[in-house]
Specification:
- By secondary structure, the chain is an alpha/beta fold.
- It folds into 2 domains: 6-47 and 307-420, Lyase, Ornithine Decarboxylase, Chain A, domain 1 (Beta Barrel); 71-279, Alpha-Beta Barrel (TIM Barrel), CATH 3.20.20.
- 29% of the residues lie in helices and 23% in strands.
- It has 10 helices and 19 strands.
- It has helices spanning 47-64, 78-86, 97-105, 120-132, 145-158, 182-194, 215-238, 261-264, 289-301, 397-400, and strands spanning 6-7, 21-22, 42-46, 67-68, 92-94, 110-116, 137-142, 164-170, 198-205, 247-251, 273-277, 311-322, 325-328, 343-348, 363-367, 372-375, 388-392, 405-409, 415-420.
- The strands form 3 sheets. Strands 3, 12, 13, 14, 15, 16, 17, 18 and 19 form a 9-stranded mixed β-sheet that branches.
- Helix 7 (215-238) links the parallel strand 9 (198-205) and strand 10 (247-251).
- Helix 3 packs parallel to helix 4 (120-132) and helix 6 crosses helix 7.
- It is globular, with a radius of gyration of 23 Å.
- The chain starts with 5 loop residues before the first strand and ends with a strand.
- 46% of the residues are buried.
Length: 423
């Protein structure tokens, strides 16, 4: 793993009194999260859960006969990108050209931009990366003739002769990007096939927007989307619009990724299909939104268990100002709150190194920028000033972007290393 970045006083929660340290040497310090060696709040990654999740998703993809291109926006961590590639990922997915540049630096040589590329600076950036790396292949999304015209105009002005790789995006009415009708998608694919600036590599969709964490509803709606994408693919194939020897079909957020597998294994076309799953949050999972969705995946797949939460944000009890309320030293600056409040999951009394589950009924009711409101039954087990509480999060993407680094810890919370982020 590439851990040559330097940790020092400019990194949140790194001890101010400690000398700068290469991340690769952090494990030699003998620090422990529960020993007070690092400042709170502190976001950590449990290494055993990371290892498990990497192996689980690799095995899932192999069992289903699809490739994996995890979405890098989840972590934006070069070190975690390297682990995902080393665990067998076909490539990586990104939302922007900047994110792509970080992934390329980490070693990715196949990538999907699961988004439209529309401005000159981004097209220039993509061209620069392709020029620098002869072995790099990048597909990005197109969903309108207007976007295609922008790309073609850019190519003329820049005198670009290389045809860029694209995927036609199929969208859902009322939701975000993507062609709304079969006719629009096929018309766009025909224009791409004729274009001197781009070529058609395949078809893309994102199914997460129709999911409600209800298996009957989700299966019905995702299946309907899969059928739409499959029909577009068949018509484009019949017209010979795909440029490569295989057709790239890609889908898969982190909530109902199992339901799009039939699309990624489409058969009966004139060319073989490369099905690419783009789930990203699997690497850390969470204690909220994705945990609920994964229970349905487990039921549909007949599994007893699947992914494990790896990401926790540790905070201290700084005040217990009234019965039933404690204030913790973490807030909106430190952890996810866009989907729901964080969840107390572990509790370590002051001076203790063990961290059992929190008592039943402990909840976070609100966040300020730097405070979390921990509610508890005043007649039950009470937290005290100086105790430590680990908060599980919902939606890991919006916790990672609040940290420039996160320590890796073992199951005893000893610090064994670190990863960086590049948001």
């Amino acid at each position: 793993m590439s851990s040559n970045f330097i940790l020092d006083h400019r990194c949140k929660s790194y001890p101010l009194k400690a000398a700068p340290c290469p991340a690769s040497e952090l494990g030699r310090k003998g620090w422990n999260v529960l020993a007070g060696d690092l400042a709170y709040p502190l976001a950590v990654l449990r290494s055993s859960a990371l290892t498990h999740n990497l192996a689980w998703m690799r095995d899932f993809a192999q069992r289903k006969g699809v490739a994996l291109a995890p979405h890098g926006k989840t972590t934006m961590s070069p070190e975690l990108f390297e682990q995902q590639l080393q665990a067998g990922a076909w490539g990586l997915t990104f939302a922007t050209i900047y994110q792509l540049s970080v992934g390329v630096e980490a070693g990715a040589r196949r990538a999907i931009i699961a988004n439209q590329v529309v401005c000159d600076a981004d097209l220039d950036g993509l061209q620069t990366l392709l020029d620098r790396h002869a072995d790099l292949r990048v597909w990005f999304l197109v969903d309108s003739l207007g976007q295609l015209a922008l790309i073609e105009d850019w190519a003329v002005r820049r005198k670009i002769t290389r045809r860029l790789d694209t995927l036609v995006e199929i969208g859902v009415p009322g939701q975000r990007t993507g062609c709304r009708t079969l006719e629009d998608a096929v018309t766009l694919a025909q224009a791409i096939a004729r274009s001197p600036a781009v070529q058609l590599g395949g078809i893309e969709c994102y199914e997460g927007g129709v999911a409600r964490c209800d298996s009957e509803h989700d299966a019905r709606e995702v299946t309907a989307l899969v059928r739409r994408v499959t029909e577009v693919t068949r018509q484009c194939d019949q017209q010979g619009l795909f440029a490569d020897a295989e057709i790239l079909l890609t889908a898969g957020g982190s909530a109902v990724f199992d339901l799009v597998v039939p699309l990624l294994r489409t058969q009966g076309l004139s060319k073989p299909v490369l099905g690419v799953l783009r789930s990203g949050c699997y690497i850390t999972h969470d204690h909220g939104n994705y945990q609920r969705f994964l229970k349905h995946v487990e039921q549909r797949e007949g599994l007893d268990a699947s992914l494990r939460p790896a990401l926790e944000v540790w905070a201290m009890v700084q005040s217990v100002p009234e019965p039933g309320l404690a204030l913790l030293t973490a807030g909106r600056r430190d952890l996810s709150y866009d989907l729901e409040m964080p969840v107390p999951v572990r509790w370590a009394r002051r001076g203790e190194r063990s961290a059992p589950d929190v008592p039943a009924g402990w909840t976070i009711s609100a966040l300020n920028d730097q405070h979390a409101y921990l509610r508890f039954d005043p007649a039950g087990t009470k937290p005290a000033v100086g105790d430590r509480v680990a908060l599980g999060i919902s939606h890991p993407c919006t916790t990672f972007d609040k940290w420039r680094w996160l320590p890796l810890v073992d199951d005893n919370f000893a610090v064994t290393g670190a990863i960086s982020t590049r948001f």
